[in-house]
Amino acid sequence: MARWDGIDEFIAVGEEGSFTAAAKALGLSVAHISRHVTALEQRLNTQLLTRTTRKVVLTKEGDVFLHQIKQLQHAMDDATQGLAQQQRTPKGKIKLTAPVMYGETFIMPIVHNFMYDHPEVEVIATLSNEQENLLEGGFDLAIRLGHLKDSSLRARRLSARRFIMCAAPQYLTRFGEPHTLGELNQHQCLVGNSSYWRVNENGRDKHIKIAGRLQCNSGWALVDGAKKGLGIIQLPDYYIGNEINSGQLVPILTSYQPQQEGVWGVYPPRQFVATNVRVLLDYLVAGLKHTNGN
């Protein structure tokens, strides 16, 4: 901004007709005004003002320069005010990605509320269980579940999730309730994408191998199987919160429940977060307070 140095001071002197009046108008010292105007003249290699003991008069070059530079000052003021308005009002495009089930159930309804409140925002949403590369894919925001791996990205914690082991009352009546992790080998475990479950034993999280006669990559399908007494499941709380509250499923091995994991809003490492992304993150934090993880 060196090219702009002294411009505001020169305009004030030209309009006020003296260094003293200009200093008063800008809230600066007379010495400051004089020093910056002189530096401007030296940089332009042009005398802009004629100074006498009684008054200050614009030179011919100074008069022309004053009218031209005032237009630029007004344009800069307009641009600054416009930018401030954009920073207050979310607008423009947001490209985001989220896991399929979590995105469908929790993220997109909040995004829709955000879009309704801010009609100048456009959203391109990709729901995928593949972890998209934000920089290569041009994403402004990604919803990530669990432990974060990429430390080069910035992140904001939006919510949390807990993994819970549970079964239907009829299954526990028929086969008994396990009380140790070793007893799971004697039970039907409904297997999802992984044949390992997360547990916490003696204060440390670890994974244990499980097995059963049903394996499916759909959490909702596993919930249905558990409700019908086919076996024990372990899923994040947002899958099974309603079933636990209604008594259709019963938590088991609660002393081995793993620690909470974060639900994160992850975004590229820019110096300033775009207003539309920042406000959307605020919406997500507020909206996800009602999920089972909080």
Features:
294 residues, alpha+beta, three-stranded antiparallel beta sheet, 12 strands, 42% helix, 21% strand, rod-shaped
Please give a structural write-up.
- The protein is built from 10 helices and 12 strands.
- The protein has 294 residues and is α+β, with helices and mostly antiparallel strands.
- The strands form 4 sheets. Strands 4-3-5-12-6 form a 5-stranded mixed beta sheet, with helices on one face.
- Helix 1 crosses helix 3 and helix 1 (7-16) crosses helix 4.
Short description:
By secondary structure, the protein is an alpha+beta fold. Helices cover 42% and strands 21% of the residues. 28% of the residues are buried.
Q: Going across the major beta sheet, what is the strand order?
A: 4-3-5-12-6
List the uncertain runs. Answer: none
Q: DSSP helix count? A: 10
Task: Give the mean pLDDT.
Answer: 88
Estimate percent helicity. 40-55%
From the N-terminal CA to the C-terminal CA, the straight-line distance is 48 Å
Q: Layout of SSEs?
A:
Blueprint: H1 7-16, H2 19-26, H3 30-44, E1 49-51, E2 56-58, H4 60-88, E3 92-98, H5 100-117, E4 121-127, H6 134-137, E5 141-145, E6 154-161, E7 163-167, H7 169-175, E8 196-201, E9 204-209, H8 219-227, E10 233-236, H9 237-246, E11 250-251, E12 261-267, H10 275-287
Parallel strand pairs: 3-4, 3-5
Antiparallel strand pairs: 1-2, 5-12, 6-12, 7-10, 7-11, 8-9
Helix pairs in contact: 1-2, 1-3, 1-4, 2-3, 5-10
